[in-house]
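tool_log.txt
---
The assistant was asked to compare two proteins side by side. It first ran the structure predictor on the initial sequence, then on the second. Raw inputs and outputs are pasted verbatim so the downstream comparison step can read them without reformatting.
(1)
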Amino acid sequence: MKIGLFIPCYVNQFYPNVAIATLHLLESLGVTAEYPLNQTCCGQPMANSGYGYLTDRCNTLFFKNFNSYDYIVSPSGSCVLHIKEHLHVNGFEDESHNLSKRVFELTEFLVDVLKADGIKSSFPFKVGLHQSCHGQRGLKLSQMSELVASPFSKTEFLLKEVKGLELIKLSRKDECCGFGGTFCVTEEAVSVKMGKDRVQDHIGHGAQYITGNDVSCLMHLEGILKRNKSRVKIIHIAEILTSEK
């Protein structure tokens, strides 16, 4: 397989260790991944703010960077969903549509494509899982609790294989954290209150770490934790799956 590593701009700028962990994780499973150096923002912030027409160059650049790959893998559910739903390149409509089908969020790729089982990692802590809205409701990484259907979670499946990790139960396991991209800027008071409620659910159940598939949501929660001088830390699932603590 020829794999392209798609690293969102906020991961590159603020949490580069998540990108490094993603690469190491794929390599540990025998996958060789390449990182196109001139990749930039996928255009999601503009599209979420109602300026979708400004994303044309982002789409064109993404197409040029990744169209030659069999799969494109990213440690960000929200950016993956944006590409899947909105990638469109004038003159290459069919090709860009086919490319969007080859873009996968990391845990989705591990479970659905690689069929990864028994990843060797150790993380002896109590961990709360924040399942981001884009991943759950858009990418279907886990079952929504309001649906009467058999529960599943690709992320939980991987976490339960980690040696020593105790996955805590939450009162509201699929509640939004309030980040919502530009929502946290335009409606900051509501966003912060939602984040505080999400953090408290984890703290109240004894979490030492909060993990998830989207660094954007984790960054929002981390800001609230730090302002409250909490000892609870955030960590991306890629960092747990490559941990040897």
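(2)
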Amino acid sequence: MSRRRQRVPWVSYLLVLSGAVLMVVPFLDMVMTSFKGPGESGKLPYRFLPKGFDFGNYRAALDQLDLPVLFRNSVTATALITGSVLLTSSLAGYALAKLRFRGRDFIFRLVLATMMFPPFLFFIPHFLILVHWPLAGGNDSLGRGGSGLTVSIVALAMPFLVNGFGIFLMRQFMVSVPDEILEAARLDGAGEFTLWWRIVLPQTRPVLVTLALLTFVDAWNEYIWALLISTADPDVMTLPVGIQLLQDYVDPTRTMPVVMAALVLSILPVLALFLLLQKHYIRGVMLSGLK
């Protein structure tokens, strides 16, 4: 029995190591492919390492992509989405967790129901709403005659400003905040906004960081909606759309290495943010019960 107990941790370590290798190998393959020369990518037998490290793929990606504009659009849209999701999720989560009002449970069920539908299901209605937005993009007060908000960078963020999962996550964590602390603060004259800002938010910081990272990654990698908006106005094109269009302008023998080089450049902000907030993210995952 004792020998069996001693072997179990090693089996666990082996499973964790195997999972880590499966996660890291595609990333390393992307990096190695970004350094391959013309004709090396996709050639059989497959070579993981390049024959020589060709930095020309990165120069080609920078030459073909209007990188400052794409980065600006991606950063602006991602910042708007992340900031809005954190604000609305924390406020709604506090209301659903700590305030008593008629219809609270019904509203919470509606929030849960929104998580059952894929986001792209509502892209066409969202697009039509933006097209007919009153007094924007040449529209009159009835939303006719122009292009609405589809030619604005705000359009990239509009469908994602509120997140049902974020509200659910914040509500579930805020329920654990002791009511006695809030009641004592109310007796001292604190209002609901003060309770949310001064007491509840500091205790939910790890979960906020977790939600911020998840939202940031999803918004940064959004492709379908960004492609739809960029067809209306190419000036609001984001990095994922621009990288996809590289395949139409690059030498076919270097298409994949140049695309991989552009992908490496695009994930650097996400990687830097994760490494910076890694401690808070891991703590938030543990506290919120996510797997």
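---
observation on (2): The mean pLDDT is 87. Residues 60-288 form a domain with the MetI-like fold fold (CATH 1.10.3720.10).
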